[in-house]
Design a protein that fits this description.
The chain is mainly α and 202 residues long. It has two domains: 86 residues, Orthogonal Bundle (Arc Repressor Mutant, subunit A), CATH 1.10.10; 98 residues, no CATH class. The protein is built from seven helices and three strands; from the N terminus they run αβααββαααα. Strands 1-3-2 form a three-stranded antiparallel beta sheet. Helix 1 packs across helix 4, helix 5 packs antiparallel against helix 6 and helix 5 packs parallel to helix 7.
Length: 202
């Protein structure tokens, strides 16, 4: 999937977020997710090491507020943000492009998955008709319907297994799982379910 931040850009973007005001770690991660429309939700393992590095460089300080660690930008950090304001504008523009590309990829992946499911169901119906014809059972709609139901179950289960495997493999390999992807999948599955219901009620 298209990366949201190019190499080194996340460091400057973190400084920019802290230049707006002190934040604790979760607030920083939430801000990144909000500003990318949910397409980038960084893990603690991504954010905290970078904050620690910024602290080592004297660009960020941290303090404890109850059970939360609050990060604030230093004068040196503020000076870097000001000096690199042009780069930040480029990052913002690139961020918008990346989010748009990711959304396109998500929609393409979901459409491909839906096409595959429809193809599986069409193949199942075709095979069902062939099987029923070979067995001389095409005149019994109850038997044919039961056979079609088994085929539909098989196709749906195969789709579920393949999609679940792809999602788990992506996350296990360190990939980010965007909320928009799940929203797209849910919306398309709901739409297909409504179409099926409407067809059955005829």
């Amino acid at each position: 999937m298209t990366p949201v931040f190019s190499h080194g850009d996340l460091r400057l973007y973190l400084l920019n977020l802290l230049d707006e005001g002190p934040r604790h770690g979760y607030d920083i991660m939430q801000a990144l997710s909000d500003r990318t429309g949910g397409t980038y939700t960084p893990s603690a393992g991504t954010i905290y090491p970078r904050l620690a590095k910024l602290e080592e460089e004297g660009l960020v300080t941290k303090s404890v507020d109850g059970r939360k660690t609050v990060y604030a930008i230093t004068e040196a950090g503020h000076a870097e943000v000001q000096a690199r304001s042009g780069e930040l504008e480029g990052i913002e523009a690139g961020l918008a492009d990346s989010v748009r590309l990711i959304a396109d990829e998500v929609r393409g992946s979901v459409r491909e998955a839906m096409r595959s499911l429809r193809a599986d169901l069409a193949a199942a119906r075709s095979q069902e008709r062939e099987t029923a014809t070979a067995q001389g059972e095409t005149d019994d709609p109850r038997i044919l319907s039961r056979m079609q139901l088994h085929r539909a179950d098989a196709a749906i289960n195969d789709f579920r297994v393949r999609l679940r495997t792809d999602l788990r493999t992506h996350v296990a390999s360190g990939g980010e799982l965007a909320a928009t992807l799940i929203d797209e999948i849910t919306a398309d599955l709901d739409r297909i379910a409504r179409e099926v219901t409407r067809t059955l009620r005829g």
